[in-house]
Design goal:
The complex is a heterodimer of chains A (257) and B (284). Chain A has 257 residues and is mainly alpha-helical. Chain A folds into 2 domains: 1-105, no CATH class; 125-257, no CATH class. Chain A has 10 helices and 6 strands, in the order H-E-H-H-H-H-H-E-E-H-E-E-H-H-H-E. In chain B, the strands form 3 sheets. Chain B has an 8-stranded parallel beta barrel, surrounded by 6 helices. The chains are: A mainly alpha (257), B alpha/beta (284). Chains A and B meet through helix 1, strand 1, helix 2 and helix 6 of A and helix 2, helix 3, strand 5, strand 6 and helix 4 of B. Chain A: This is DNA-binding domain-containing protein.
Amino acid sequence: MSTETQTRFAAALQDGTLPIPAGLNSWNAGRPERRFGVYRNNVAVGLIGALASRFPATERIVGEEFFAAMAREFIRHHPPRSPLLLSYGDDFGNFAKAFEPARALAYLPDIIRLEIARGHAYHAADAQPMAGDVLAAVDPSRLAGLTFVMHPSASVVRSPHPVVTIWAMNAGEMEIAPIAGLAGEDALIVRPQMNVEVHRLPPGGAVFLEALQTGSTLAAAVESASADSADFNLSANIAGALGAGAFAAVHQPPAGD
Amino acid sequence: MIPSELPRRAGVGFKPEHFSDIIAGSQPVGFFEVHAENYMGAGGPPHARLGKLREDYALSVHGVGLSIGSMQSLDKEHLARLKIVCDRYQPDSFSEHLAWSTHDSVYLNDLLPLPYTEETLDRVVEHVDQVQAALKRQMLLENPATYLLFEESTIEETDFLAEVVLRTGCGLLLDVNNVFVAATNHHMDPRAYLARFPLEFVREIHLSGHSETVDEAGAPLLIDSHDTPVKDPVWALYQELIDRTGPVASLVEWDNDVPQWSVLRAEAEAAEAILRRAARRSAA
């Protein structure tokens, strides 16, 4: 009996076109449409709010009203599957890519991916970033075989759009200005201590870090990065990533190699 | 089983935006309460802040996503996450709601009402037993704010709660704002509700604000919105309640349109003044 009650209740909460479930009551005996509406509203407003707090730059770009409409559509097709709302919206970027009214903003899905990465970095395990001078102590003959452990908060977002600039403009970190003519940008997102930081990666930097992230040796990562961009500069990239706190540790190849 | 035992003082629902004000000095607050689900990430600022608060204050962990009133089984993964939070912070109290929020695999993100029947009672008892066994702690169960009723209900909410206590050994969290909201919405006397409430098992009280609207017939429909100061009729009920029970840990919650710390602290001080008067009377 009550399982059915909850099934009908849940269905009518999620689909506003359904009539309110039978078996509900109010003291003044009318069909409690408006009373049921309180729950419908709580569910929608709560989830839209959860997405808005996870995607503040996205909301700023499209405006509150557009964001709420887009979020409502997303919630209908992808309701949360866990009470852990801090990871709700991991597929919001893919949804936005196919969301017709947002088509004109080609960069929007990448901004969403950047904000998702920021959210993961915020909640990632804490770890002390590797100190900058660790590499200086490595025997130069063994540098090529080094492998790196990325900081738990670190991730890379690549984009054909100037996402770092657009994000910074809509996160209050840069003046809003025209973006026409700006090249694509790749981002490194990392939280070395308590602040999540977004860095613009130099040419080849994204390929370089992604290779290290998947366990490639330094030599192999350099090869991939140089193939990606003729302008890849190893020492600038290493210094940048170390300075950002992107690495947790480095492993030397076994002696004798 | 570790009992849920908070200091019999006023507490405040912790909001991250108040953190720097809170740690700037010693606050006249007996405990802080946090929503468990906000501390289920691996690390980062939420844990850094809570770890710091925990050094100086008693802590209540309050779950909002366990869906104890659900007819389907509890989410074991979520229960495991709650255990991690409790193990990490060793709270003085753990509480959850007499409500459901998950159905099939969808999380509905609201505290939804359930009919009160023998069938739902058995289910809630089973779930409370399961939670207490998993956490090895006594939990407190909170009375809900409700907006409508179920034709199939056969048990009074107060009797339902009393029966859960008897059969599980849990304690109760009495939300006085919820009492006022639900009583108004169902055209009942909140004092009659409190007269039936098993007060001897209440280990914590919640106080918060609500907003006011009307139903189709123009009858008042109050919303448990946690976005205003505690309203006068709720303070009056609270005062009468504390006159009967003596001091009980009392939390001020303000979750939406969150004001400055000083405003929330003043609300807690108002509750604390009522608790102090009651303590003096019982000592006299």
